[in-house]
Amino acid sequence: MGRHARNLLVCLHVVTSVGWMSQALALFALLVHGMTAGDPHAYEMAEVLDAEVLVHLANASAFTGLMLAPLTRWGYFQYWWVLVKFAITMIQICVAIFLLSPRLTALADGGQADSAALAAGTILMASAIAFQCWLSVAKPWKRTPWTATPPKPPAPPGLLVSFIIAVPLLDYLLASRLGHPAPLLTVLTAIAYPIWRRHRLARPGRIQASR
């Protein structure tokens, strides 16, 4: 992967991650305001931010992180700090999809939901992203014990790199068209690229060259 393309993908990952954290903090502020001031409009605004902004930033942050791992020497399971980031990201997304967002929608619609628990969940989300930022900078711990020295990842075609960088925007446009979040290209690319990478690494020519 070329240096300029890598820097652009890293920049996109950083920007979307910071945006994800900032929106989580905004949700926390709105939920606290709604609880203390008894303002139902705060819950409505929080639900809009969650559905229209935070979800897209979270998808883009997770996707760019998932793609940076196989596109660089870090890999998916070679280093503990990468593996911990991956686990935290998957937990955050699952919790947001199945627990936080449905309850926030119910609260915005005037239903019953524990706003204090939602506020705690959003501040935990922001804290987890901040911890992941520290992991990316400090890169603590050693390699995982079950991995050998990783081979040099195959260079992806230039068109593929451009497509990867464009995927978050394309999925946002698709979601705008459908009226709800639909990270179809994100999921397909995140699944297809590791399969292509594994196939390229398994080619006899690459095995002999690595020796």
From TrEMBL:
Residue ranges of the TM segments: 7-33, 53-72, 79-101, 116-137, 158-174, 180-196
Keywords for this protein: Membrane, Transmembrane, Transmembrane helix
Protein name: DUF2269 domain-containing protein
Species this chain originates from: Streptosporangium brasiliense
